[in-house]
Amino acid sequence: MPSKPPNMVMFMPDELRWDCVGYSGNEVIRTPNADRLATEGTAFNHFYVNHTVCSPSRVCMFTGWYPHVRGHRTLWYLLQPDEPNVFRYLKEAGYHVEFWGKNHLLADASVPSSVSFRGTVDYDRRRAIDTNPVDRDDPWFRTLYYGERPIKEANDWDRQWIDGALDFLNSNPPEPFCLYLPLFFPHPPYWVEEPYFSMYDREAVPTPLPADHAGKPKYYEEIHRSYGLDQFTPEELREVVATYYGMVSRIDDQLGEVIGALERNGLWDSTATFFFSDHGDYVADYGLTEKWPSGMEDCLSRVPLAIRVPGLDAQPLTNAMAETIDLTPTILELAGVELKHDQFGRSLLPLLRGETSEHRAAVFAEGGHGPHETQSLEMKQDRPGEDFVYYQKARIQTDNPAAVCKSAMVRTHEWKYISRLEDTDELYDMENDPDELHNLIDRPEHAGVQMELQDRILRWFLETGDVVPWEKDEAGRPND
Asked: How far apart are CA 56 and CA 74, in angstroms?
């Protein structure tokens, strides 16, 4: 470990699933820079998000709170000034916090106290992304697949954010610094320019899992039909996989640019570098695309994590189970900053130091909304017509709120159990059915396992249901 607090780079692609990096065992995809971090540091094979939507997931990772602690279960409820966050801790400890990327974390009122400099870019999202360029008569129109991106669109958010980060690293930056890079790719729509669009042979990428929806929750069939994915065979949907892979390789090349700038400027050996994502993506598995607020499949809840800390020896790929809330105590312990709020993360540093191979017996996630929580739903009346890329997603939530009902997951190495308030529960044998194809819920032969996992979820909610503020109010004390 360095004698002084290290600089930090947090490189976070959006919607990158765990099995789409080379070090996870994927022999097709090309991610040499993420693989390098895994080789030179510590990579995790079982790292799970606590919510499968952007904002709630990011709130968890940078507070150490589960979504239910303060109701952070929507895209639109971000961290307020009275709530803790890692970046405020770092800034108050003397770090320069440089922020280039997609927010989905801090409310506007929280930015000044948490960020030293936030980079801005010029990009018209509605013109370039949200309005579907695919012809209405094309079978791909509702699938979120756009195909090859015109080169003129390649100078997008990510490119501008990366350029801003490179300028910062080349500017003799103040130390210690924390460079936060929450990027957009490989978040859908699925499109990418050359050379990435043709990088992967459509016959070589994996065939998506079949659209067999027996025993599955309501949203499976809703998405499959409403997005027009029922018109394609799994083999035809390899087009989505190959394009997504190209998007991932583009992000990895940008990670390589950041690493190169650290090396050129003599910062590589004084900077802890983190590579992780906020959630995964269906990438046509089960005949689905993008994600779902109450979806808990491993392709959504399990994400890559690789951490390289100067002065620590590289460790083998670890099978220890960890959660995104564990990032909060890990980052602050690295920075030598004392926690001043109750939280539920556990530092990963004992794993990074090679002191242990164990971390958690189970991981948890939650999502979805109650039928009365219309402020949480993506409503179709808020979406500007069917040409809007997420119109069908909002329509499903408006017309069938039960398809996005409140849900909670517990996952061990051996089993996964998902409890849903208004839809089918799910139970999977993760050792014998890692693709989660066969729902074993309410099978008599698994009654004991099911009861044990139900009890784990109950105890989890009891143990983590709230936090008591550390500041004490004087009001209410009896007079002396």
From this structure: 6
